[in-house]
Write a structure and sequence with these properties.
Layout: E1 5-7, H1 21-26, E2 31-33, H2 42-51, E3 57-59, H3 78-81, E4 88-90, H4 98-104, E5 113-115, E6 140-142
Parallel strand pairs: 1-2, 2-3, 3-4, 4-5, 5-6
């Protein structure tokens, strides 16, 4: 297919098909909008980013993923899980807390725009260290609607 953008919002998608299906169907996709579907795991996120290698924008707004655990990457080759073309990641209204973002950051090092609107990221810098190496390409971070009560929660981003 020649299209570079696929909008599949509100389609009740819960499965991505067998390995290779996305690569075969939409390998040239650069922007994928999967807002408000029934996706449920970070395995699905990595399935998407592995099969659509030139994906630059991924929108997963409204999907509810199971919590990622600190041991998720154990035994996995993180370098193979990084998609260097993914620049914009939209994770709005997914009930994410900053501890989940902190776990994911080693594989999101090329992200330039991260949208975390209406999540549960109210505790950030008072509990977590902002690692400059993981955020070296970040140019835009939207934390609107997370209930952040103090500037101290975002003060750590000044090192970027």
């Amino acid at each position: 297919m020649d299209s570079y953008e696929f909008v599949l919002q509100l389609k009740m998608i819960s499965s991505l098909g067998p390995p290779g299906a996305l690569r075969h169907l939409i390998s040239n996709c650069q922007r994928l909008y999967l807002d408000r579907n029934l996706l449920y795991s970070w395995d699905q996120f990595f399935h998407i980013t592995a099969e659509i290698r030139f994906l630059s924008t991924l929108v997963l707004t409204g999907n509810r993923f199971a919590r990622i655990t600190p041991s998720y990457f154990q035994g996995k080759n993180i370098d193979h899980m990084i998609n260097p073309h993914l620049k914009e990641l939209v994770l709005i209204d997914m009930a994410l807390t900053w501890d989940q973002i902190d776990i994911l950051m080693p594989v999101l090092v090329y992200i330039e725009q991260l949208h975390l609107v209406r999540n549960r990221c109210s505790t950030i810098c008072s509990k977590y260290t902002i690692k400059k190496d993981y955020f070296k390409n970040l140019k835009f971070l939207n934390l609107e609607g997370n209930g952040i009560k103090d500037w101290a929660e975002v003060a750590g981003f000044r090192v970027l």
